C-alpha cells in the first residue's frame, strides 16, 4: 500500500489506463472512433483518451444486454449463485483497492486518503450488502379462498441503464448496479465524462468475478449523446440517475417520449444543518458543520450548505466554525495528509468562484476562505468559504453550488427555523442539533427531507434508504427499498 505522495506517483507510473467502452465482455473503441481527453484536476496531467460513445454504441450495448437477459444466463441463476459471484466481485475490488483509489483521485480530484478509506471500501460493501440480501427476500402468498392460490412474485425488470455523477464515481454507481445485478437484471453504466476511469476498470473485474458477458456494460461519453440515447431507447426498461435536477427533469421527458421506462432520480440538494441553542456540544456541531461543507470539496449532493444557527448562540458559534474550517485546507490530492482536494474541472471551479462573487454582490459577508489557491501545481483548488449574514432569499442560499461554500443564516424560533429549512425546491437531507428529544423528534418530522441526521451530519449505512423529497428526486438507493426500483411485482392467481 502506498503511504506517501511519492509512493502514489510511482504507482501511477505502473498503471495501464483503459479508456475504451466495455460491451459484451470486451473492451471496444466507440463505433465512431471518437475519443475525448481525460485530464486530472489534481495537476493537469493527461490521463487517457476515452471512447466517446454515442447512439450506435448504446444500441449495441442494449442489444447484448437484452440478449443476455432473455437467455437467462444471469437472470435465471439461483439467487444464491448470483450472491456468490457478486461477493467475488466485491473481493476483487478490494484486491485492487490501491489501483482504483488512485484512478478515482486522479480522475476527479478527491484526496487519496478518502478514495482509499471511503470510496473503494464503500463500493465493495454496497455490492456485498446487496448480494447478501438477495437470497433473503421472500415472495408472498396471498390470503385466498381454499380453491384459489395467489402468488406475488418479484421479477427482474430487464435492461437497466444508469447515468451516474462524477463526485463519487464508484459509490454512486455501486448503489445502482449492486441491487440491479443482484435482482437479475442486465446493466449498462454511463459514467460521467468527467470521471469515467474507475467504471471502465471495474467492468473487467465484474467479468473476472463470473458475471456473464453482456450482463455488465460500460459506455463512457457525454450526456447529450450516449446518455440521451439510453434515456430514449425503446428497449431500456429502467433508467437510474444521480445528478442535477435540470437533467433529471429532462430524463422524465425522454421517458415519456419513448417507452415510459421507469425513471429513478436522485437529484440536487441545498440541505439545511440546524443548530439550536441547546445543542449538546457546540464544538462538535461546529466540527460537523465544517466537514459537511468541505468534505469532498463540497461536491456532495447532501452537503450541509445552509447552516441555520439560533441567534442567541451565533456570536459563540461562528468563531468555533471558522476555527474548525482550518482543518480543511486544500492540498495536492495525492498527499495522504490532504483533506481538501481539487475541484473536478475548470468549468466547475469557475462556477464555484462565480457563486462566491455573487454572494459578495448580494451583501453576504465572506468571513473565511473563498480564494483560488495552489495554481502553481496546475491543479484546480479553492479554499472552503463561509458566508455570514446570509438570508434565505440570496442566490447562494437558493441554488446548489456543488462546491465548498457555506451560507450561515440566523433564526430566532423553532417555527422560523423550520420555515427556512423547508423553503427550498430541494428536499434531500438535513441536520438537527439539540438536547431536547421532543424537539429533535418533532422538528425532524416537520422537515421535508429524505434523510435527517440528529446531533451528527451524514449518518447512516447501507441499511438506511437514501433519496429525496420534492425536486431532489424519487425512489431510494441503499437498503432493501433499492430493490423496488429494479424489480416488477407479478400477481399470479391460480384456480385449484
Description:
The chain has 496 residues and is of the alpha/beta class. The chain folds into 2 domains: 5-267, Aldehyde Dehydrogenase, Chain A, domain 1; 272-462, Aldehyde Dehydrogenase, Chain A, domain 2, CATH 3.40.309. Helices cover 39% and strands 20% of the residues. It is built from 15 helices and 23 strands. The strands form 7 sheets. It has a 7-stranded mixed sheet, with helices on both faces. A 5-stranded parallel sheet has the order 9-8-7-10-11, sandwiched between helices. Strands 5-6-23 form a 3-stranded antiparallel sheet, with no helix packed on it. Helix 4 (97-108) packs across helix 5 (112-134). The chain starts with a helix and ends with a strand. The mean pLDDT is 98.
CATH homologous superfamily caption of the largest domain: Aldehyde Dehydrogenase, Chain A, domain 1
As for the CATH topology of the largest domain, it is Aldehyde Dehydrogenase, Chain A, domain 1
Give the overall pLDDT as a whole number: 98
Span between N and C termini? Answer: 63 Å
The top level CATH class name of the largest domain: Alpha Beta
Structural class: alpha/beta
Low-confidence stretches: none
Name the strands of the widest sheet in spatial order.
Answer: 14-17-18-13-12-20-21
| Radius of gyration based on Cα positions | 23 Å
Strand content: 15-25%
The number of domains is: 2
Total helical segments: 15
Shape: globular
Largest sheet at a glance?
Answer: 7 strands, mixed
Number of E-state strands:
23
Amino acid at each position: 500500500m502506498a503511504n506517501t505522495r511519492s509512493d502514489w506517483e510511482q504507482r501511477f507510473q505502473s498503471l495501464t489506463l483503459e479508456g475504451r467502452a466495455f460491451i459484451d465482455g470486451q473492451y471496444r473503441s466507440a463505433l465512431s472512433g471518437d475519443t475525448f481527453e481525460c485530464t486530472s484536476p489534481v495537476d493537469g496531467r493527461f490521463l487517457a483518451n476515452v471512447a466517446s460513445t454515442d447512439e450506435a454504441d448504446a444500441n449495441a450495448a442494449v442489444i447484448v444486454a437484452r440478449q443476455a437477459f432473455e437467455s437467462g444466463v444471469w437472470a435465471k441463476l439461483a439467487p444464491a449463485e448470483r450472491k456468490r459471484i457478486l461477493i467475488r466481485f466485491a473481493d476483487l475490488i478490494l484486491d485492487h483497492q490501491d489501483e482504483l483509489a488512485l484512478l478515482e483521485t486522479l480522475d476527479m480530484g478527491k484526496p487519496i486518503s478518502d478514495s482509499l478509506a471511503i470510496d473503494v471500501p464503500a463500493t465493495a460493501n454496497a455490492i456485498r450488502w446487496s448480494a447478501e440480501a438477495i437470497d433473503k427476500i421472500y415472495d408472498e402468498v396471498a390470503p385466498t379462498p381454499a380453491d384459489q392460490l395467489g402468488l406475488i412474485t418479484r421479477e427482474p425488470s430487464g435492461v437497466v441503464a444508469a447515468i451516474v455523477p462524477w463526485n463519487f464515481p464508484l459509490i454512486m454507481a455501486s448503489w445502482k448496479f449492486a441491487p440491479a445485478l443482484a435482482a437479475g437484471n442486465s446493466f449498462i453504466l454511463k459514467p460521467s465524462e468527467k470521471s469515467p476511469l474507475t467504471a471502465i476498470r471495474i467492468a473487467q473485474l465484474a467479468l473476472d468475478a463470473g458475471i456473464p458477458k453482456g450482463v455488465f456494460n460500460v459506455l463512457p461519453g457525454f450526456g447529450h449523446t450516449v446518455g440521451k440515447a439510453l434515456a430514449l431507447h425503446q428497449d431500456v426498461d429502467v433508467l437510474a440517475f444521480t445528478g442535477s435536477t435540470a437533467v433529471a427533469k429532462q430524463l422524465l421527458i425522454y421517458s415519456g417520449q419513448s417507452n415510459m421506462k421507469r425513471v429513478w432520480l436522485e437529484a440536487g440538494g441545498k440541505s439545511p444543518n440546524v443548530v439550536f441553542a441547546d445543542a449538546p456540544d457546540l464544538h462538535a456541531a461546529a466540527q460537523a458543520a465544517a466537514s459537511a461543507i468541505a468534505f469532498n470539496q463540497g461536491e456532495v449532493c447532501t452537503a450541509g450548505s445552509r447552516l441555520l444557527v439560533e441567534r442567541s448562540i451565533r456570536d459563540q458559534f461562528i468563531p468555533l466554525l471558522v476555527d474548525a474550517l482550518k482543518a480543511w485546507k486544500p492540498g495536492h490530492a495525492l498527499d495522504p495528509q490532504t483533506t481538501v482536494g481539487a475541484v473536478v474541472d475548470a468549468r466547475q471551479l469557475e462556477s464555484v468562484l462565480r457563486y462566491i462573487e455573487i454572494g459578495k454582490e448580494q451583501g453576504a459577508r465572506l468571513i473565511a476562505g473563498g480564494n483560488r489557491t495552489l495554481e502553481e501545481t496546475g491543479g484546480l483548488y479553492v479554499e472552503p468559504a463561509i458566508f455570514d449574514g446570509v438570508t434565505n432569499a440570496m442566490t447562494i442560499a437558493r441554488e446548489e453550488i456543488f462546491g465548498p461554500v457555506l451560507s450561515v443564516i440566523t433564526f430566532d424560533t423553532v417555527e422560523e427555523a423550520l420555515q427556512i429549512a423547508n423553503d427550498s425546491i430541494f428536499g434531500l437531507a438535513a441536520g438537527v442539533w439539540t438536547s431536547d428529544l421532543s424537539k429533535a423528534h418533532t422538528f425532524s418530522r416537520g422537515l421535508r427531507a429524505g434523510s435527517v441526521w440528529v446531533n451528527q451530519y451524514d449518518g447512516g449505512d447501507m441499511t438506511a434508504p437514501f433519496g429525496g423529497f420534492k425536486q431532489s428526486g424519487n425512489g431510494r438507493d441503499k437498503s432493501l427499498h433499492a430493490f423496488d426500483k429494479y424489480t416488477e411485482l407479478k400477481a399470479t392467481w391460480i384456480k385449484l
